[in-house]
Amino acid sequence: MPLPPERAAGAATARTPTPRSAGAAGKGAAAAAPGGEGKAPARVARAIVTPGYWDDACRHLARRDRVMKRLIPQFGEARLASRGDAFTTLARSIVGQQISVKAAQSVWDRFAAVVGGPSTHLAPRKVRALPGPTMREAGLSARKCEYLRDLAGHFDDGHVHVADWAQMDDEDIIGELVAIRGIGRWTAEMFLIFHLMRPDVLPLDDLGLLKGISLNYFSGEPVSRAEAREVGEAWAPFRSVATWYIWRSLDPLPVEY
Prior knowledge:
mainly alpha
């Protein structure tokens, strides 16, 4: 599973996918170019969206990398999944910083309840208007309250250009996101992978990725960022997909943001 640097003690550009019904999706999805042109529509089951390039990526990775050839069949039809909107996805990432997954879910449920509305689509204006004591009662630290208000302000005031993200490259989006308090490069990269479903992100600050590369490629020996980058070169232009399978090799349960 993805592990941000702050949890160390405890533990090519594509356009935004276009959903279609789960019944219409299959293994014969059309090949996708790294830039998203000619990409098959994404698959969707209820509110969960998955990328249309996945099957093509798996074929590409299995041909080029012996570890991927072994890992991919182990997980069948499982694949990257996303739910919720951009603001809510980023808000969840802030709530979950430096606490366990179980604790993060508990705090999120309480926080979403005081905001009101669907927990997968919180309104930035409502978050911005919440009194500090109300946010603290949901289990949030004072700093996380500040981060969430800053995030809500960026969205509410139009400082993030959500409508333009489909045409922006990965680094430009990262630059826009890290200007928000509480969001660093790792969080921005997770957002690119799990929400925007960009196919070619290699999060070298992710401890889970480094551990998975160590176990699968270096017999458990520690690996440097440079060594991980070299392994990832063979995965391009689908490094996000390969990273997902490396995470799954450590934890069979899929991660959703």
